[in-house]
Amino acid sequence: MTGSLAARLIFRRTSPASRFIPRREVSLPAAERTKDAIAPPKELPAFDYSPLAYSGPTGDEILAKRREFLSPSIFHSYKTPLNVVEGKRQYLFDDKGRRYVDAFGGIATVCCGHCHPDVVAAIVEQTKRLQHSTVLYLNHAIADFAQALASKLPGNLKVAFFTNSGTEANELAILMARLYTGSHDIISLRNSYHGNGGGTMGATAQSIWKFNVIQSGVHHAVNPDPYRGIFGSDGEKYVRDVQEIINFGTSGNVAAFISEAIQGVGGIVEMAPGYLPAAYDIVRRAGGVCIADEVQCGVARTGSHFWGFEAHGVVPDIVTIAKSIGNGLPLGAVVTTPEIAKALTRRSYFNTFGGNPVGTAAGLAVLRVIEKEKLQENAFEVGSYLKERLNTLKDKYELIGDVRGQGMLLGVELVTDRQLKTPAPTETLHAMDQMKELGVLIGKGGYYGNVFRITPPLCFTKEDADFLVDAMDYTFSRM
After folding, report:
1. Alpha carbon distance 38, 397 (integer Å)
2. Total structural domains in the chain?
3. Domain that residue 27 falls in
């Protein structure tokens, strides 16, 4: 039995959660191992900063506490978990003072860079004055941030509701859609991830993220995936399924269609061209509203646009935002039109921490830093350069089945057979571990656990991109 076949059999027999845990070293066919010798990457890009001395508990001590006092559902990356004690810009430091290129950004969350001085200053200044104030009182921080956020959105998207996470934002968006339309049915896409709450778990369409609890009123349309989808890049063929769901699975009226412009947890999956405008038209004709989940692809991450949906030439009715907007603070938002927003006035809606002055002060600082430092432009320029370099590796290694995404939201899918597109989850875990040892941190996603998720802070440089690709090249050459 070959190493690749053994890896597939091991993958199929394990429980869903176990795909996050490394199992063994892998051995690729001899043809893959006999490539020209590749030198290990040079030293990390120059960075004029030294971390503070660390005197806290060791990684083993922290891991022991986690096992005893934290939920057993919490997992970690890498065979030897990384003990991260400090972050600065696009780099992280472990308890030994070693620096790593952070190409995961806290799961597409760190936008301006770790501990950006402007964001830190805004947090500290607000914390000194007022850490928390209920929205029952007036405070300028929440109003200033809401105004700034509205200025970044098109059309009549101008009314904000603040939450603490993307899951909360999507939960609220789905509730608002049902109240506003008077319908219950939601359409989302297969392979999507929208959160782990009661309503969002229903909208999520991957079994590995769904518990066996009641999840009603959600229909999952065929995913318009250009790489694995049955119709390739033909968006028009995929969208027929949305109409058929409405015709045969609902009363003919729906509450909403929710989607990401680029699926994040699903493995950085882009949509087939032309799909989103057609889907929006069909849903609106059925009385529904369109929700753009911008939790991962929004806030300048794709580079070409500030919001992922803008690349498709559509204007949603509701936008959900989180992750990057707080640069690491728990901050989320739902932005919609005044008409849809009124639906929540039929009863009382309240969120104790939504709109917290510290969080909204940080959010406003994030928007200002993005503009001041031209981080959207940097995401486009450096992201395009990085994607081009990753595509050169695809030409070199059969292990890479696809390179996709935009800006600082990129995916590299690993397969053991390009024709069959056989997922390579074990090889993916092995490569992640080896790259970590070289000083590069990346994430992982996709239903099969075989996609590198590359979502660094938007201040990532071409030198960082080169180091990442060189580390990946060296790793693949030795597998």
Report:
1. 13
2. 2
3. 3-112+375-477
